[in-house]
Amino acid sequence: MLVQFLILIVSLVFLVWSADKFVFGASSIARNYGISPMVIGLTIVAMGSSAPEMMVAATASFQGSPNTAIGNAIGSNITNIALVLGVTALLAPLKVSSNTIKKELPLILAITILACYVLWDQHFSFIEGAVLLVLFFVYIFGLLFMTIRRKKQAKENEEEDLLITEAEADVPEAVSKPLSFLWLIVGLIVLPLSAGYLVESATEIAKAFGVSDLIIGLTIIAIGTSLPELAASIASIIKKEDDLALGNIIGSNIFNILAVLSLAGVIAPGEIDAQAATRDAPIMLAITLLLFALCFSRIKGAFRVTRLKGAVLLTCFIGYQALLFS
């Protein structure tokens, strides 16, 4: 069993590493062919943090374990809000912008409600998965359209849009085309290999401890694949970019539902674990509603996620983990 744990940890490390190299290679190729850094930042780089979850979901679904994929998507969303944002707020309270209040929070809440509705009958159909996947592409194109319009308005008013600037700044510098293609190929090879070993070792561990594939997806895999979001959020608060820290989490959660959860329905439609529909999806919705409430409460005249609110979120995460293994 120790061997399986070692395989899981090593494969998780390589999964995150290869996702980073894939994004680096793809971004560099895009830059070499003249694609705007803003477009690269909002597409390739934005999807990079969810690449581990997407690969795990696809691999698990192809191997006949869609509950692992579903658990990974739901667990990652709970982890992102309760653990990642909780820890981030404990380190440094976050100021919530009006744009987040008006646009991003209502959007993630609506998408989370849709996910709960889709899973509630304990059957995830191909059509439902396809609808979520189509909505993902609609979201990406909508995001690009809105950002391009904002950039144009900012240019006309001779102002700087910090979110656009940060999206462009996150794009790595281009390297030569041969090296770019090399890193892209390395990512494309190592990503599925590491995801395969991760899913296999997680399945063996689940069998040994008598827990379901769903639980493994909700816990070990979800926490592991959320590490890039934790690193990005901590880096954002160090640079005093509160909007970016919260935006990373909300964006990742949107991707997890539309681009990760959808793969389970598209690749392996059918009946799902009843607990995912009646316990975990509602908890994901409750945590999202809690985030909504915490961000809307004013502290000293401003919308903030304080250290106390971070402690509340972290307590919820610990309580949820205890519930899963009780």
TrEMBL record:
Taxonomic superkingdom: Bacteria
Membrane topology per record: Multi-pass membrane protein
Keyword Phosphoprotein: no
Protein name: Sodium:calcium antiporter
Organism for this UniProt entry: Thalassotalea loyana
TM segment ranges: 69-92, 104-120, 126-146, 181-199, 214-238, 250-269, 281-299
Localization in the cell: Membrane
Pfam families reported in the protein's UniProt record: Na_Ca_ex
UniProt KW rRNA-binding keyword: no
Domain Sodium/calcium exchanger membrane region: residue ranges: 5-143, 180-324
Keywords: Membrane, Transmembrane, Transmembrane helix
